[in-house]
Specification:
CATH superfamily of the largest domain: GAF domain
CATH class of the largest domain: Alpha Beta
Number of strands: 11
Strand order of the largest sheet: 1-3-4-2-5-6
Structural class: alpha+beta
CATH topology of the largest domain: Beta-Lactamase
Oligomer: single chain
Length: 348
């Protein structure tokens, strides 16, 4: 479908702050596509951790970010779709005649990668990333309200996966997500911490308790690979079901990890590609060799005893996981509890 008519702002409403289309314009466009039975993909985009921008840089910088992001994503998708502002830090896209997974992924990846070149003059140290969720008409549904709901489910799954990513709605993976209930209850830090503590202490076997707790956190936080690295070995490994095709993991080694871990026994990186060839970071080469794009490490210890490291890996793609504060707190709690459990079971 020719989108030149739609791109004439005299024909549609646009957002005053960002000077791109508003939600009503995008809705009108989708109504037009539906009436002509034109297939399309619908995408919701969130700016990751935008509240942090407003809280730490101020709302003037926040508005500037919205303007810059709007112009950037409008430029990136001008050849294959249209973009509008839904409200706040959310933007919406329509890709007419784009239905195949690989085609959608190419469009989305182009937008995700565009953040590398984004410059915020009022906050030059600020890094911007996006999370995107997609649904398809008429493949997923012919109802526009449901189309929003399905894209929102995919978006929420992307946030669980660590943000800075793109998720296409697939019913076999996402249909049972109840976004409102999950946000408020199922994936709350309170629920997650209580659940993994329960997994640790309700098994008769110490080893099985650790395996269950790692399995739960791996699935809930959508971590590709979570394990304990100890004595040069990977113990109690858990691979998320979505990542069974990946392999080749090897131990980093005590000396390598200790070169980079901080005084609190922690090391994490959102995007490892920037440190692959940094000789000052010993883990960089290990990440590159094993195709890891995001990483978290926490020392497992109690008193003067060292029991290894809690290790979380995300498998290499073109973007990285944005570790959230709630994720990190939960993983640090787990490492500390594991240290005490090892102490009780091995150093009586």
């Amino acid at each position: 479908m020719d989108i030149s008519f739609f791109k004439n702002k005299n024909n549609y409403r646009y957002d005053e702050l960002t000077d791109i289309y508003d939600r009503y314009a995008i809705n009108s466009y989708m109504d037009e596509l539906v009436s002509k039975k034109t297939p399309f993909s619908f995408v919701i985009l969130d700016i990751d951790n935008f509240k942090f921008v407003n809280d730490n840089y101020g709302h003037l910088v926040g508005d500037e970010v919205l303007k810059i992001v709007a112009k950037s994503i409008e430029k990136e998708c001008e050849d294959f779709g249209v973009v509008g502002r839904y409200g706040g830090d959310e933007f919406i896209f329509v890709f007419p005649n784009v239905q195949e997974y690989e085609d959608i992924w190419k469009c989305a990846l182009k937008i995700l990668k565009s953040t590398v070149d984004l410059e915020i003059p009022m906050a030059k140290d600020l890094n911007i990333s996006y999370t995107m969720g997609c649904s398809r008409f008429p493949l997923d549904t012919t109802n526009l309200d449901e189309l929003f709901e399905l894209a929102d489910k995919a978006l929420y799954r992307g946030k669980l996966k660590g943000r800075n990513c793109f998720i296409v709605y697939l019913p076999e993976k996402h249909k049972d997500i109840d976004v409102l209930n999950h946000r408020d209850k199922v994936y709350s830090p309170l629920y997650i911490n209580n659940k993994f503590y329960t997994s640790l202490i309700t098994n008769r076997s110490f080893e099985e308790g650790i395996k269950d707790s790692l399995s739960f956190l791996g699935a809930t936080l959508m971590i590709d690979h979570i394990c304990i690295e100890r004595d040069g070995q990977l113990n109690y490994e858990y691979f998320h079901p979505l990542s069974k095709k990946f392999g080749g993991y090897e131990a980093f080694g005590y000396d390598t990890i200790m070169k980079d871990i901080d005084v609190n026994g922690l090391f994490y990186v959102n995007v490892t590609k920037g440190i692959y060839d940094n000789d000052n970071i010993a883990l960089g080469k290990k990440y590159k060799e094993q195709g890891i794009y995001s990483s978290f490490l926490a020392e497992i210890k109690a008193y003067e005893f060292h029991y290894g490291f809690l290790r979380c890996d995300m498998v290499a793609v073109d973007t990285g996981r944005i570790w959230q504060q709630t994720d990190l707190v939960t993983l640090v709690h787990l490492a500390n509890v594991l240290g005490l459990l090892f102490y009780i079971n091995e150093d009586k």
